[in-house]
Amino acid sequence: MEAVTDSPAVWASHLRKRYRKRVAVDGVSFTVARGEVLGLLGPNGAGKTSVIKMMLGLVRPDAGEVMLLGRPNTDPRSRERVGYLPELFRYQPWLTADEVLALHVRLAGVTVSDRERRDGLGLVGLADRASDRVGGFSKGMQQRLGLAVALVARPELVVLDEPTSALDPLGRADVRDLLLSLKQRRVAVLLNSHLIGEVERVCDRVLILDRGRVAASGTLAELLGRRSLRLRLTSVNDEARSVLGSFEREDDLYTVDMPDDVPALVADLVEHGVRVHAVEPARATLEERLLDILRTHPEEHR
Amino acid sequence: MTVLTIATLTLREASRRRVLRSLAVLTVLLLTLSAWGFSRIDAEFGGLTSGEAKVAGSTVLNLVMFGYSLIAALGTAFLAGPSLAGEVESGIALAMMTRPIRRWTVLLGKWLGLVAFGSGFVAVAGVAQFLIVYLTVGYWPPHPVTGLLLLAGQTAALLTLGLLFATAISPMASGIVAVGLFGATWIAGVVGSVGEALGNPSVAQIGVVSRMLLPTDGLWRGAMNAFQDPALLAQIGTGVEESPFLSMAPLTPAYLTWAAIWTLLVLGLAALGFQRRDL
């Protein structure tokens, strides 16, 4: 079957998986557009890794279909341009870092020059460890190697399952830069991470899983709602209140919908005798929204 | 292409994990001991006729070759488990299996690599042993190539079984079960020989059935027959059928065909099991 070139990078429909009596994934559908970065969020045991493994053909779904880069995932060719960093990242300890990359290049059936491989290791900070056996690597170094493995065959879709779990803050920043550069190069990314700040910073859309089901999905703007403005005010009289319109108040902290012209609003308030101590944009963080989704509707996802 | 890549990787794993070095040390030790033993036969029984020397050399050769066949079969069976189940358990298989490859090609590659490793060991250790026997007591087996091929076949059969178990159970358990069955079949073969010697068809049947269920013992008996002097049985006379280190007859083409089919069947089952396994 020929690949459909204008198809999404991932199209998954009604995935379902049961491990003995426990339903791990229950009717999960989603897409990842070409060049899009999709964040996969959810508590432990929500089914995120199972979804990824079904998507990549590592686990057989009980029901559902997946297309990768325009081909059904039952066809190995669908994975020709896919890179994957597993949550459980281990590489042959008896091989050197460069040999691991060379092995994956051969298995991917692509031609990658020695220099390109070395550059790949350099990108993840392992340039000077290319000839060292993986068995001597720390966990963080193995995860860095895993990133290089995921990127070595010039992928059009990269699946990263907890890519920073073993990395120090510097490593996390490197991964964030790497994700942004993939985004710039229009490489589609599916990112499963517990680091919500990371997801918020790089993802175009977010899919939230809870108890094997999709609890919410959408762009960050859709999930987080409208932006608002937070003002710390004193000497607020009735006229000033009418200038503010509808607002929420907590002591001297007023929250209003983001106006089109913030300086005009502030000038209006000052004109009405209000003392303005602070003005800052406000929006619920992804973390707050995630907790809200998971806490507010736990039952309906059961 | 994938098959060859994985076969090469398996051989590299065997050499880098010091399996090769350990095997080499063990083999050199066994060769040295056997060289000393054969030279003692020559020294102690200096008055042996050439025929008697052949009998002694032939019998002890089978005993030593059994040692090599044990090392090859057990070694590869224990390599098969970590090579497949170990990679699945540790997570090494995850990134590899998401490459555009089919699972059966990975299994076939591993099988080929392990067969090459086992056969290479059998060939090198076997030829070295033949040379030692020839130099010490002047005996050269009548069908050395056939015997070594049958030993390689025995190794392939057991490691294939090890691979099948490795698709379902843990690396250690797969090795233990395969080796346990190997030992049980060998003992059943000896029991069957005793049954034949005593003229008890029911007991003799035990050996026949076990050799059909797992052809390692059958192939070993074929190898022994290829190594031993044809005149040996005639010289010793009757009543030796119960010896585990003598074989009365060469293998039939039908049995060899069955052994090949058995190995392919088990390999096919292993491929099916690996294909269906969640990683």
TrEMBL record, chain B:
Q: Which domain of life is it from?
A: Bacteria
What are the GO cellular component annotations?
Answer: plasma membrane
Keyword Acyltransferase among UniProt keywords: no
Q: Which residues cross the membrane?
A: 19-39, 59-80, 111-135, 147-169, 176-195, 255-274
Annotated GO MF terms: ABC-type transporter activity
Key word Cell inner membrane present: no
Protein name (Swiss-Prot/TrEMBL): ABC-type transport system involved in multi-copper enzyme maturation permease subunit
- Source organism: Actinoplanes campanulatus
